[in-house]
Every structure is written in C-alpha cells, then in structure tokens.
From TrEMBL:
It holds the Pfam family Exo_endo_phos. Residues 22-132 form the Endonuclease/exonuclease/phosphatase domain. The chain crosses the membrane at residues 52-70. GO terms for molecular function: catalytic activity. The keyword Hydrolase does not apply. This is Endonuclease/exonuclease/phosphatase domain-containing protein. It comes from the Eukaryota. InterPro entries: Endo/exonu/phosph_ase_sf (IPR036691), Endo/exonuclease/phosphatase (IPR005135). It comes from Lithospermum erythrorhizon. Keywords: Membrane, Transmembrane, Transmembrane helix.
C-alpha cells in the first residue's frame, strides 16, 4: 500500500506499518488540527482479520486524539451491505461490530454509490470509514 499527500495541506508522520494496516499521525497545516488515521487493507482471511481487530482494539485503548480507521475491511456491518448471492448470517457481522463497540468507533456517513464492490451479480459494501468522537 502506498499513501501520498500534499505537504502544503497536511503533514503525516508514519507511526507504524504492518502487512494489514498503516497507522499515521496527521496534522492539517491550515487548521493545525491533529488526528490519527489507520488505513487497513488485505484483510481477506478471517483469522488474520480477527488478529487485526485485536491489535487495533489495544491501540484504540490508548488513543486520545480523533481517530479514523478506513479502507477495505472485506466484511459486513449490516445485512443491507450485500445484495445478491447467498444471504448473510448474523455471525458475519459480529467481529466488526465487536471491534467498533470496543473502540467507540462509528460508521461515517458517505455519499455516492452505496456498494463498493461488485462482480456483476453480487454487490457489497466492503470499504468504509470508521471514526471516533474524541
């Protein structure tokens, strides 16, 4: 994963990079507001995704700044996050919901297309932005 930013707008300090996420401290050069951003990716395996949730839950316990966690979560939060294909069962939502409750993160509202992935017959919302209210 690569991230690029305009240094006239933001200054980013990369705090940690792992195979499933990149964690940064971001400062807006205009407003001087500081927040943390964690970009997640490659969370296709359930056991690896659970390890990611556990680590980010520990990380979240020490965060006192505004925090956003965003990227390709490759899992569902609500039944309406998938259209077509096999019906979703409740256990598919459990891990992400538990992670969000443990870290006080909420799903940010978005505009544009609701679904972020399709194969033509199945539509899914797999990418999202989560945020806290510190």
């Amino acid at each position: 994963m690569g991230l690029f930013w305009d240094t006239n707008q933001v200054i980013c300090d990369v705090l940690e990079v792992r195979d499933q996420y990149m964690h940064l401290r971001v400062r807006c050069t205009v407003t001087q507001q500081v927040f943390l951003a964690t970009f997640v990716y490659h969370v296709y395996n359930v056991s690896r995704r659970r390890n990611l949730w556990e680590y980010l839950t520990l990380l979240g316990a020490s965060i006192t700044l505004p925090w956003i966690v965003l990227g390709d979560f490759n899992c569902f939060l609500f039944p309406q996050d998938k259209r077509g294909g096999q019906a979703l069962t409740a256990y598919l939502f459990h891990d992400l919901q538990e992670f969000m409750m443990a870290t006080s993160l909420v799903d940010a509202s978005s505009s544009g297309s609701f679904y972020t992935w399709t194969n033509g017959s199945i539509w899914s919302k797999l990418d999202r932005v989560l945020m806290n209210f510190v």
